[in-house]
Write a structure and sequence with these properties.
Length: 162
């Protein structure tokens, strides 16, 4: 965990990974994950129950909070962030099913000055739910990914053969 590195300027966007991992082990509401690629630990993320308001969500319990997400700077920009964010949604859905919890998706907040984060989450299917002014590093976007597929208007419906 301590070997994971961020690029200059990225410390504003995420907490210290070691502290996040220790909190993850201490608090039952948190599920810390290591992101692996080809057998190497390349990043971390945490899913937390009952804390969605920390990302600007209107209540705490209808969504998992995704936090403490980072990919080591030497592995960034190759799609691992997108894949890990999508995998976090799948993992969260399984946690909810296993615990019969009330969450319907995953929410996070990402700094408006963090283009890599914004792009990775959007590419993973997270949808912008507006600006959030909590936190200490400036304006954030609240982004949400439902467990169930969403229909978006304007797409042609598939033709069903008679
Ligand atoms: C955010 C983070 C996890 C993304 O991980 P990643 O593996 O680099 O993500 P991906 O490779 O899947 O996607 C990165 C996207 O950002 C884009 N991007 C990266 N830097 C960018 C920049 N300066 N300007 C615009 N776009 C940028 C890439 O082009 C890519 O988008 P594309 O696939 O559409 O081309 C990683 O950058 C990171 O750890 N950052 C530091 C900590 C952090 O910000 N965590 C998130 C807190 S909410």
């Amino acid at each position: 965990m301590a070997l994971l590195e961020l690029a200059p300027g990225q410390l504003d966007f995420v907490g210290d990974p070691l502290r996040m991992a220790l909190a993850g082990l201490a608090e039952q509401s948190r599920r810390p994950y290591v992101i692996e690629a080809n057998g190497d630990a390349v990043g971390v993320l945490t899913l937390q129950a009952g804390a969605a308001r920390l990302a600007g969500w209107p209540d705490d319990h209808s969504a998992w909070l995704l936090r403490g997400f980072l990919i080591d700077r030497r592995h960034q920009g190759r799609g691992l962030g997108r894949l890990a964010a999508a995998a976090a949604v799948v993992a969260a859905a399984k946690l909810t099913a296993g615990q019969e919890g009330g969450e319907a998706g995953v929410v996070l907040s990402v700094n408006e000055r963090n283009p890599a984060g914004l792009a990775a989450y959007q590419n993973a299917g997270f949808v912008d739910h507006g600006q959030y002014l909590g936190g200490s590093s400036g304006p954030q976007r609240t982004m949400y990914h439902s467990f169930t597929p969403q229909l978006h208007g304007g797409l042609p419906l598939p033709q069903v053969p008679h």
